[in-house]
Specification:
Blueprint lengths: L2 H30 L2 H27 L7
């Protein structure tokens, strides 16, 4: 597996994990009404956005390398 393919898989999995964490935090907020859950949700969303920008950056940087 090339570095480019590894990054696509790893960043994609990380985005899904962070998104799942954000959804879990907001669902927990609905149940408990604790403000810390909003902070965790915001942290998850910020992580998703940062990972998307990182993924775009890496794909541009590794444009000349093949996927396999």
């Amino acid at each position: 597996m090339s570095l480019k393919a590894f990054h696509i898989v790893f960043v994609g999995a990380s985005i899904l994990l962070a998104l799942g964490f954000a959804v879990w935090a907001i669902m927990d907020f609905v149940e408990t009404r604790q403000m810390l859950d909003i902070v965790w949700c915001a942290l998850g969303v910020i992580t998703v956005v940062a990972l998307i920008f990182y993924g775009k950056f890496v794909l541009r940087k590794l444009k000349q390398f093949p996927y396999l």
